[in-house]
Amino acid sequence: MELMRACRNSGIHTSVIFILRSPFEAFLSQVQASKEVWPDKRLTEVSESNFQMFARSSIASLALFVRDAGAHKLRFTSYDRLCEATDVELARVMAVFPLRMEAAQLNLATASHVGGDPSANRKKEVSHSSRRVEAQNFKAQLSPSPEKAKFVHIEQLAAHYEDLTTREVLDELTRIVILGQGARPWA
After folding, report:
1. Element (H, E) at 84
2. Handedness of CA 89, 104, 96, 122 (dihedral sign)
């Protein structure tokens, strides 16, 4: 965010693309990536203590983001939507800059990736493999905690962000991560 602030202050156009995702699914993905791909094997077990460490780090990062994000042009999308309607969402993302999406952007590179999605090297096209059931089971096993409650609210926001304006999404994230308040009740 500091680099983006410096760019903006120098007259360079800045935009933030923020991908919302169930944080419980993101945690499970991080564990898999740590086990299978990353050389640093810090997060290799699905456990309450690893979840708490991941959640505290994620919430701290989100808090830094929401403090500065309003100064930039924002575009929210969701991981699920990006996977399910890649061409539509990628076009929406590109329009922020403003650039046109090109068909070649839908082809995944075949070069080896470092980090990220552990299954990316095996993919020939964007596909959506949901961890929803696994994440729901894991969430049910977790003890109540402020971090779990915040993640539940972020998960709800990720499922309903399309019903809100960009400002409202940012306000909801702020309420959740900084103020520790629950998100609005979703219908």
Report:
1. helix 79-84
2. positive
